[in-house]
Design a protein that fits this description.
Strand order of the largest sheet: 2-3-4-1-5
Distance between the termini: 43 Å
Radius of gyration: 22 Å
Helix content: 40-55%
Shape: elongated
Largest sheet: 5 strands, parallel
Oligomer: single chain
Number of helices: 14
Structural class: alpha/beta
């Protein structure tokens, strides 16, 4: 998949710094969740690992071939999307990058969703950034860079990824995944890589059917149990995100913003049944529930059932 248009300017700026020899050994790539920080970081990693002196990866050298096969021994990745990055993981990684490169001259460390590092892991990364190995680059991505240590942020070249507009996202998705018609989920999010993740993880139907199910529930044509059929600890966040998006879009529409066609009926019934004031309270309650479920072992079905009974 080619790099998305809204990411290309950032890539070109880094390529220019690479050629001029002015590139920092650490980069922090930030932006809204799902706009493509990880895609941009991987493209940057391929450029840096290339053995040729040119700006962009040549695609022909041994390092480029290993990167294409996802087998380069000097490219290390830690992904914090699914859980906390712990200090032992960082120490193991740092130990490996202090060794000489096995291929070419460059080593690259890619820490995705870097805000997931616990304090000990963050301090270990900070030490590595303060004492970098020769020809070693750190690429950190985050949608919540404020959660990183200020000292880590200060030692990184900041790369801000712009948020694409709806027209850009629609055109890009139509080109790369036309059969999925993911614009149907623009009420949930317009962040392109989040939409691709939903499709990849086979959760599209869950979100496509949610507005109509909520509408039937509000009209007392469906019980809470029927609405939450299939809910478990693995998809509780998806249900919360979907319900929160419905409430949020309804609140925005009440203030004059356009409303996605998929939410027209459910918006009318929400306003009729609970009104704007209660709608605001329920939106905040869903957000609080999401945070509580991350920190405790609450029964997800019981908690969400209790919330929906107040709609």
């Amino acid at each position: 998949m080619s790099l998305a248009p809204w990411l290309q300017q950032s890539q070109q700026q880094i390529q220019h710094l690479k050629v001029s020899g002015d590139l920092s050994h650490a980069l922090l790539i930030t932006g809204a969740d799902g706009v493509g920080q990880e895609s941009l970081a991987f493209a940057m990693a391929k450029d840096l690992m290339c053995e040729s002196p040119q700006a962009a990866a040549c695609g022909q050298c041994h390092s480029c071939q290993l990167m294409a096969a996802d087998t380069h021994p000097d490219f290390r990745v830690l992904d914090g999307e699914s859980g906390t990055i712990k200090v032992d993981q960082i120490r193991n990684l740092v130990q490996k990058i202090t060794q000489k490169p096995q291929v070419g001259q460059t080593k690259v460390v890619f820490i995705s969703h870097a805000q997931s590092m616990n304090i000990n892991a963050a301090n270990a990364v900070l030490k590595a950034l303060e004492e970098p190995s020769d020809r070693t680059f750190f690429l950190l991505t985050s949608s919540q860079s404020s959660r990183l240590l200020p000292t880590i942020r200060s030692r990184c070249l900041l790369v801000n990824v712009p948020t694409p507009n709806v027209e850009q996202v629609d055109a890009w998705l139509a080109e790369h995944n036309p059969e999925a018609n993911l614009s149907r989920l623009f009420w949930l999010t317009t962040q392109p890589f989040r939409l691709l993740s939903i499709e990849k993880n086979q959760k599209t139907d869950l979100f496509l059917t949610l507005p109509e199910k909520v509408n039937q529930f509000l009209q007392q044509e469906m019980t809470v149990a029927e609405l939450l059929k299939g809910l478990d600890s693995q998809n509780i966040e998806d249900y919360c995100n979907g319900l929160a998006a419905i409430l949020h879009q309804s609140l925005c529409h009440s203030a004059g913003a356009p409303l996605h066609p998929a939410l027209e009926a459910v918006y009318a019934n929400l306003i009729h049944r609970i009104g704007i004031r209660v709608l605001m309270d329920r939106y905040q309650a869903i957000q609080n529930l999401k945070l509580a479920l991350q920190k405790t072992n609450l029964n997800p079905i019981m908690q969400l059932t209790n919330e929906l009974n107040q709609w």
